[in-house]
Amino acid sequence: RRLYFDTHALVCLLEENGFTTQQSEVIVSALVKIMNTNLDMIYKDMVTKVQQEIALQQVMSHIGGVKKDMIILEKSEFSALRSENEKIKLELQQIKKQVTDEITKVRADNKLNLNLEKSRVKELVSLVTSRNISTLSNLQICHAQQDRALTQTDRKIDTEVADLKTMLESHKLDNIKYLAGSVFTCLTVALGFYRLWI
Length: 198
Fold this sequence. Notes:
This protein has 198 residues and is mostly helical. The protein folds into two domains: 1-46, no CATH class; 47-195. The protein has four helices and no strands. The protein has helices at 7-16, 21-45, 49-141, 143-197. The radius of gyration is 54 Å and the shape is rod-shaped. The two termini are 69 Å apart. Belongs to the CCDC90 family. Keywords: Coiled coil, Membrane, Mitochondrion, Transmembrane, Transmembrane helix. The chain crosses the membrane at residues 178-197. This is MCUR1 regulator.
């Protein structure tokens, strides 16, 4: 082991300052022993370059393994998310189809109701016209009675038409409310499923 000072020069220095040769040599050998002991203690905690390179390679290989594991885990998580996304898309398409079916049903019901109301109105109109014809024949007999009957029937027709119009408007509003309620319910269910799957 190298010594980083000159032991002979130290012995000479001690002799010049009043120590004997034997005392100087004992002091220098004690110093050398103390230094060697300290260096041994320091070298126990130190690592050689080769050991450091080996440890660094081990750490790098461990990091590479962790990276590979993370990439595999990320790919598997991504595929799971993709499959979940596909399931949600299919469910949304089914819900969309159900909503469109409900809308077409409601439209068909509304058209049917409107057609029924139209035929009823036409029947009422034809009935009223037949009454009017009979009253016209009777009016030829009595003109004054005809005027009264016509005004009464006109009033009845107006009130019935107004009633029918109000009924149609109320049916329309009810159907629109039902349609809006159905659509919002379906959308709420779809959003609930979407929330659950997220």
